[in-house]
């Protein structure tokens, strides 16, 4: 009735992603974190081995991987570097509304080109004055003949400006609430579309985060996903799915915190013996392991529901909130295990804590996950 065995293909995929993190990500993660630069060569290599934009369906030229597959990749990327995870997985986030609300023709038109060369997608919902209250968007879209004209500013957009395509959510009537929203695919080179890189992030500094500016940006009506008024719901259905890989990436961070702690605890000596022999330290690694195992069960279940075509918003919100909080605690305790050395960049654990903080904020804050969970319980 319950089977936790991965298929042979999934085991291979997991191994591929694990090797990729070990060879291509971990050796350069600290450098790009310090430089606050996106390592484009990792995007190219991910493309070469089939780890980039892997959810694009076969009919659009992609691999058509499912959510469990995507999460297996996500856990390994999170283990390697959560900033680089965000570069690659924010692209999946940009693809998902096209899978949720696009026709087969639109999927071929917009996603096909992403399978031909290393390229990224982006998802632009948040704005300077509204993040959690996503329906209160100010960016406008006005129909002019057969074209949408977009004006406004989007904030905090991962891969923003670098992405070949960006799904932009806009309102056709600011008084109309979510029922007046529309989802539009905007190509990178659209006239009037510009971006400003946001600098000095606390963590995930290898990812590009941008403010996007739209000044009379015109896109053809064929770039509209779904119907008029569907924009907000397409965004919500997307996030119900993409919050699950965030949970998986968080489990990856917690697993890294655990591995680094075990290694250090066996090496470091105090009072004439390895600190691993103190029960206080043993309990910290036991606690981390408990979090990794429970977190993984949660994201596996939520991802499995997606792949079965079953309702998954409630489980997705639980997995995202639980795993990001569990991983935050694991990274925090990993610093404690490392003592003073944990507080400086010589060991990777301080970066884990800076990176994982964002997992509690993006893709909907953990307060918003609790809004989703409690609404499901109390409706
Ligand atoms: N699926 C389908 N429809 C949904 C839905 C869902 N999950 N959630 C809501 N809806 C529908 C409702 O049924 C309702 O429809 P009707 O009016 O036809 O009945 C409509 O949408 C409005 O619903 P609500 O009244 O519940 O909406 P709300 O305004 O109260 O907002 C919310 C709900 C959960 C707080 C939502 O605004 C939300 O999720 N906010 C957080 C935004 C967010 O997660 N942003 C992440 C940006 S991306 C990012 O961060 C990426 C990254 O870093 C890489
Ligand atoms: P606010 O909505 O102003 O919230 C402030 C505080 O109030 C939070 O603690 C929040 O939980 C709380 N709060 C608000 N409403 C409620 C409520 N109803 N109940 C309880 N508490 C509440 N967005 C995108 O669209 N695309 C991206 O690619 C993207 N990437 C990002 C990358 C980075 C590095 C960052 C920092 C953000 C990114 N975001 C992106 C934006 C992110 O999704 C928002 O920051 C997030 O949704 C919160 O919105 P806000 O910052 O406006 O906070």
Main attributes of the structure:
379 residues; Butyryl-Coa Dehydrogenase, subunit A, domain 1; 3 domains; 10 helices; 51% helix; globular; binds flavin-adenine dinucleotide
Structural overview:
One of its GO terms (molecular function) is medium-chain fatty acyl-CoA dehydrogenase activity. Belongs to the acyl-CoA dehydrogenase family. This is Acyl-CoA dehydrogenase. InterPro entries: Acyl-CoA_DH_CS, Acyl-CoA_Oxase/DH_mid-dom, Acyl-CoA_Oxase/DH_mid-dom_sf, AcylCo_DH-like_C, AcylCo_DH/oxidase_C, AcylCoA_DH/ox_N, AcylCoA_DH/ox_N_sf, AcylCoA_DH/oxidase_NM_dom_sf. The structure is a single chain. The protein has 10 helices and 10 strands. It has a 4-stranded mixed sheet with strand order 1-4-5-8. A hairpin with a 2-residue loop joins strand 2 and strand 3. Helix 3 packs across helix 6, helix 6 packs antiparallel against helix 7 and helix 7 runs antiparallel to helix 8. The protein is globular. The two termini are 30 Å apart. The site of acetoacetyl-coenzyme A has 24 residues, from helix 4, helix 6 and helix 10.
What is the SS-derived class? alpha+beta
CATH architecture call of the largest domain: Up-down Bundle
Strand content: 15-25%
Q: Residue ranges: pLDDT <50 for 5 or more in a row?
A: none
The overall number of domains is 3
CATH homology-level superfamily of the largest domain: Butyryl-CoA Dehydrogenase, subunit A, domain 3
The major sheet is characterized as: 4 strands, mixed
Strand order of the largest sheet: 1-4-5-8
Shape: globular
Evaluate the radius of gyration.
Answer: 21 Å
- CATH fold annotation of the largest domain: Butyryl-CoA Dehydrogenase, subunit A, domain 3
**Strands, total number:** 10
What is the end-to-end distance? 30 Å
Q: What's the pLDDT, averaged over the residues?
A: 98
Q: Count of DSSP helices?
A: 10
């Amino acid at each position: 009735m319950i089977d936790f065995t991965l298929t042979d293909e999934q085991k291979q995929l997991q191994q591929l992603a694990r090797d990729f993190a070990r060879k291509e990500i971990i050796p350069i993660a600290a450098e790009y974190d310090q430089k606050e630069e996106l390592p484009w060569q990792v995007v190219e290599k991910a493309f070469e081995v089939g780890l980039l934009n892997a959810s694009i369906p076969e009919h659009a030229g992609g691999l058509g991987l499912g959510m469990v597959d995507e999460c297996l990749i996500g856990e390994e990327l999170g283990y390697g570097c959560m900033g680089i995870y965000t570069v690659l997985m924010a692209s999946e986030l940009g693809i998902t509304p096209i899978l949720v609300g696009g026709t087969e023709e639109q999927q071929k038109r917009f996603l096909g080109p992403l399978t031909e060369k290393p390229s990224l997608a982006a998802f632009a919902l948040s704005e300077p004055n509204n993040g959690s209250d996503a329906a209160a968007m100010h960016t406008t879209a006005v129909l002019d003949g057969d074209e949408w004209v977009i004006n406004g500013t989007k904030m905090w957009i991962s891969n923003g400006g670098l992405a070949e395509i960006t799904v932009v959510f806009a309102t056709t009537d600011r008084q109309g609430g979510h029922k007046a929203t529309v989802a539009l695919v905007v190509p990178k080179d659209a006239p009037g579309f510009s971006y400003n890189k946001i600098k000095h992030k606390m963590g995930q500094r290898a990812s590009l985060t941008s403010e996007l500016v739209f000044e009379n940006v015109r896109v053809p009506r064929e770039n509209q996903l779904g119907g008029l008024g569907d924009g907000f719901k397409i965004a919500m259905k997307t996030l119900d799915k993409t919050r699950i890989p965030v949970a998986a990436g968080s489990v990856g961070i917690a697993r890294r915190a655990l591995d680094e702690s075990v290694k250090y605890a066996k090496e470091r000596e105090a009072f004439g013996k390895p600190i691993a022999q103190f029960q206080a330290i043993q309990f910290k690694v036991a606690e981390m392991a408990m979090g990794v195992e429970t977190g993984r069960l949660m994201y596996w279940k939520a991802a499995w529901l997606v792949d079965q075509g079953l309702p998954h918003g409630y489980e997705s919100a639980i997995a995202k909130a639980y795993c990001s909080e569990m991983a935050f605690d694991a990274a925090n305790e990993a610093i404690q295990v490392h003592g003073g050395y944990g507080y400086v960049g010589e060991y990777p654990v301080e970066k884990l804590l800076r990176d994982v903080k964002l997992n509690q904020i993006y893709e909907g804050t953990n307060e918003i996950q609790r809004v989703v969970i409690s609404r499901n319980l109390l409706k």
